[in-house]
Specification:
The protein is 29% helix and 34% strand. It has helices at residues 17-24, 27-33, 43-55, 102-117, 132-141; strands at residues 2-3, 7-10, 60-66, 69-80, 85-91, 122-128, 144-155, 158-168. Coenzyme A (COA) binds next to helix 2, strand 5, helix 4 and helix 5.
């Protein structure tokens, strides 16, 4: 488990799948997560996703807990041992849990895990043009814009850009007060 002052990142338990399915079957959440055609997931599909994640040794999936409650998931995907890269994803899936600083804290923990435990050199992510809140958060924690995939997403009758942001190990500034070792919650 990775602990910050208010957030902990834990394994996803099979018993949590029904709760995740209620969130990941919402169009409002799915529209910002994946540029592919939206498939709202039923329980069977969510279980199949969980089983695939458990088998994939190039992914690190965490349940985000805040105030003792599951509020979402986050992951480092496509971890590449040769190039020391990974792609980050995050969902504070419970709408009521957004805007409390949990996303920022989750990113701090995941960056610490990625850079100081997995020994990654580059962590990248994709964010859609119509998700400026997420982009602001990423830039606030130190991600930099690599470039823009122009008109790469067709959604709601329009083409949208998708931005690629990244952070390098040399740019990462660990918080000396808490994290994997400095747990206080
Ligand atoms: C994008 C997302 C991860 C942000 O997570 P969050 O927990 O809402 O983010 P935070 O609360 O850390 O920051 C959001 C705002 O709340 C503010 N905030 C409120 N209380 C705060 C606190 N106690 N500590 C820190 N920030 C706080 C932040 O300053 C920030 O303000 P800003 O947007 O004006 O910069 C979350 O909204 C989410 O999962 N959305 C749906 C899925 C999604 O878009 N995923 C990303 C796809 S690329």
């Amino acid at each position: 488990m990775l602990r910050g002052p208010r957030v902990s990142l834990r394994p996803v338990e099979r018993s949590q799948i029904p709760k995740l399915q209620t969130w990941f079957s919402q169009y409002e959440l799915m529209r910002v997560l994946n540029p592919a055609a939206i498939r709202l997931v039923n329980l069977e599909a969510e279980e199949a996703w969980f089983d695939a994640m458990m088998k994939d040794t190039n992914q690190y999936l965490f349940a985000i807990h805040a105030g003792g409650e599951l509020v979402g998931t986050t992951s480092l995907m496509q971890v590449n041992g040769k190039n020391r890269t990974a792609t980050l994803g995050i969902s504070i899936a419970d709408p009521a849990a957004r805007g409390h600083g949990y996303g920022s804290e989750t990113l701090d923990l995941l960056l610490e895990f990625g850079f100081l435990e997995l020994n990654l050199n580059r962590i990248q992510l994709y964010v859609m043009e119509f998700n400026p809140d997420a982009r602001r958060l990423y830039e606030r924690v130190g991600f930099k814009l690599d470039g823009t995939l122009r008109q790469s997403v067709f959604r709601e009758g329009k083409y949208w850009d998708e931005h690629v942001l990244s952070m390098l190990r040399a740019e990462y500034q660990p918080d000396p007060h808490w994290g994997i070792k400095g747990a206080n919650a």
